[in-house]
Write a structure and sequence with these properties.
Blueprint: H1 6-12, E1 31-37, H2 43-54, E2 59-65, H3 70-83, E3 87-91, H4 93-100, E4 116-121, E5 140-144, H5 149-160, E6 164-168, H6 174-190, E7 193-197, H7 211-219, E8 225-228, H8 238-247, E9 252-254, H9 257-261, E10 267-270, H10 273-288, E11 300-301, E12 306-310, H11 311-317, H12 323-326, E13 330-332
Helix pairs in contact: 2-10, 3-4
Keywords: Signal
Pfam family, one: ABC_sub_bind
InterPro entries: ABC_transpt-TYRBP-like, Peripla_BP_I, TAT_signal
């Protein structure tokens, strides 16, 4: 897996901040960063904080956890406007949309006059968080954490020789809906059958108790692979969710690292959450200490993703990856 050291990050940004003036208001006191979590502290948040600490950027944090509740975000926006921090850091698409709003959002409802750096956002263009990845066009920038859906699809074809795929996603989240739309398009072009389901209750919210029945319905379609698009709802449930999938004979491919490392997903094309956070920390440093405006800081992802394969799960399911893949994949639980 690619290492994302401070030296490498500084190399990425060489020449960008040379000669920049440290904001006068930061002299003699720590920068104030208001950090908004969507589902509690993650490795992304830890990577961001560690990067800034190692870079010698003195920061005072105010932290709020929305607990995956969209209604909580309005109160957090109001608090940010009262506190006037130097910068707002936001984890996940739903939280970023609730805090910064879409590109044409009402400034009265969102934070638009304070720099915002988001992290772990799957598709900021489709979510309308920015106008353009290279030039965000607003007071917000950040780091993407997912390989494109089309690339994940190709990886699943190579790994499972899939002719039929099942997808369980969170229809309450922006990224999940967009990912399923993209997957339908690439699957149709490739002639792959797709069965799609979601553990959504009648109130429009996902429910833990609906995961089992949803998996059972998908297993009945006899897919070659179960795909789990990125969602904050699934990650805390990584172990029990993927254990249920294995019990049903479903090899699972995930877009998120924790589903494989902490759960029983068989494989995934993923970015390191910790390194995503480090990259977000670098962008925060560019803005706070380097004097860059977010409009000048492109939205980026890590330059490489890792193919993770859990051989323990592979052996249990008796579904084995091609030998050629083992030459470049990262093998976990190999014994």
């Amino acid at each position: 897996m690619m290492g994302l050291s401070r030296r490498r990050l500084l190399a990425l940004g060489s020449g960008l901040v040379a000669g920049a003036v440290v904001p006068a208001r930061a002299q003699g006191r720590p920068f104030h960063v208001f950090a908004v979590q969507w589902r509690g502290a993650t490795d992304v948040d830890r990577g961001m904080k560690d990067y800034l600490a190692r870079a010698g950027v003195e920061v005072r944090y105010t932290e709020r956890n929305a607990r995956q509740d969209h209604k909580a975000l309005a109160a957090i926006v109001a608090e940010i406007k009262r506190e006037r921090p130097d910068l707002v850091y936001v984890f996940a698409t739903e939280a970023a949309l609730g805090i910064a709003g879409p590109v044409d959002g009402d400034p009265a409802l969102y934070v638009t006059d304070i720099p915002v750096v988001f992290a772990a956002v799957g598709d900021p263009l489709s979510a309308r968080l920015v106008h353009d990845l290279r030039k965000p066009g607003r007071n917000a920038t950040g780091v993407m954490h997912l390989a494109p859906v089309s690339v994940q699809f190709e990886a699943m074809l190579s790994l499972f020789a899939a002719k039929r795929m099942a997808v369980m996603y969170n229809a309450a989240e922006t990224y999940g809906r967009g990912a399923v739309e993209q997957l339908r398009e690439v699957a149709a072009r490739a002639g792959v059958e797709l069965a799609v389901d979601t553990p959504l209750a009648d109130d429009g919210k996902p429910r833990i108790e609906l995961i089992g029945p949803t998996l059972a319905r998908l297993a009945a379609t006899r897919p070659d692979v179960l795909y789990l698009p990125s969602t904050s709802f699934f990650i805390p449930l990584a172990k029990p969710l993927t254990e249920q999938a294995v019990a049903l004979g479903l090899p699972t491919f995930s877009a998120n690292e924790p589903m494989i490392r902490s759960g029983d997903a068989m494989a995934g094309l993923v970015a390191s959450f910790y390194e995503v956070g480090q990259f977000a920390g670098y962008k925060i440093e560019q803005i706070l200490r380097g004097g860059k405006h977010p409009e000048q800081v492109p939205v980026e992802s890590l330059s490489r993703f890792s193919l993770l394969i859990n051989m323990r799960v592979s052996r249990r399911l008796r579904v084995y990856p091609p030998i050629t893949m083992l030459r470049y994949a990262e093998i976990i639980d190999a014994h």
